Amino acid sequence: MKNLRIRNTILLLTATTLTLVSPFTKKDRVYDLNYSINSSYHYQDTTVAFANSTCGDIYIIKEEIEDTYKPPTKTAIVIIDETKDEDPNMRIKKSCNINNPDQMMEVLEVIKKYNELYPSKWNRSLDSMMNEWEVHNALSKINYMPKHTDHVDLNNDDENTYNHKVLTKIFGN
After folding, report:
1. CB crowding 65-98: b at 16 or more within 10 Å, else e
2. Low-confidence residues of the chain: pLDDT under 70
C-alpha cells in the first residue's frame, strides 16, 4: 500500500457546497485534489450528493433509491448510504473497478466529507477502509465470491477486523 499524508486541508463552505482542497504528499511530489460535494441534486425527493473528483464523478445516494437510481454516466462511482442501518455502512458499488490507491483514497475522503455534511453513527478510519477495499479487490481479481467482493461494504463492525477475518477463512487458524 502506498503511504499518503494530508497536509493543510482547507475547507471552503458555501450555502450548498463543501469544497475540499487537500495537498497530498507522495514521496517528493504534491498532488492537489480538488473536489466538492454539492447537496442540491434531488432524485425522487431524496438528496443525492455529487462530487467531482480526479477519478470520476461520485454520486452518494440513500439506500431507498438504489433500485431505481441510474447515474448520468456509465463511469460514475456510486456509493450507497446505508448509515441508518443497525450496523451503519457506506457501500461502494463496483469498487473492484478502482485499483489506483490515490483514486481509492480520494473516494474515501469524499465519503468522510459527506459524513461531516450528513452526520450519522457511521465511523470508519481511512486506513481501515483502504485495507478492506484492497482485500476486496484482491479477492475480486481471483473471482472469489464476486457477488460480495465486487462491491466494498464499509460498515462499522468491520473496523480493524476485516483483514483478520478474511485471512483466517483463507488460511485457517
Report:
1. eeeebebeeeeebbbbbbbeeeebbbbbbebbeb
2. 1-42, 161-173
